[in-house]
Give the backbone structure.
Amino acid sequence: MAYSGERPPDDLHALAPERFYEEVHSFEFWFQAVEGYLAETSHGRRGGLPDPPLEPADRERLVTALCNYCVGETAALEGASGLIACAPTRLAKIFLSTQVVDEGRHLEVFLHRLRELGVADPEREVERRASRELLQFKDRLLQLVARKDWNAAIFAQNVILESLEFAVFQDHAQTADPVTSDLLRRIIKDERRHIGFGENELGRRLTAQPEERRRLEIIRRELDRLVLRAVEDTARLLGATKDEEARVGRAYVESVERLGFLR
């Protein structure tokens, strides 16, 4: 049964668990959600926002941050598309197909923003400025996808990577220029949905396969090193204080720990 849009989304929580699960993973629900915050936007942002020139140092920091955001979005795009073939249920395949569209749009939006900032060749700039830790994370995620390791790949992608992006984007949106802040706040709405899928999918599977928790904890320890270094690098280039950097790191850790994966 597809989400009809005839009742408020809050009422979905009154549904039986299986019907709720089917509703929120449907394309129809995705259409309603996206229409709610992308209507009347261009490249994902509202028209009429002020976009004054940035100081050279601020522009450099923003360009580097956006280049690294492109790496994360590319990892999620390639990961989600690769996982569709091995997804264990029809609903998971449908959800991942909506996530592929989300990630492709995020990547396009960030590349467009780079062009607005005067970057003539965004693809080359991403290659030049990409964080080594994020590239290593991307490689590791895609290895898990290639092995069709569903639990580990969903954990790396929809819990670890999406939690990282959610924490970083939410913090950056508070201090960014109006255009970048608007873009980030809209993208965050998608990240919440992606994290929710990962938490729901793994929560159900770990209940049935408790032995998997230990294996995923090992993978988390491996990936945490890369993620927290990426948080440190991003916070530094955006001019964050040590307290602000620690806050972003805690937000990431808390998102992952909701599934019971302790450091």
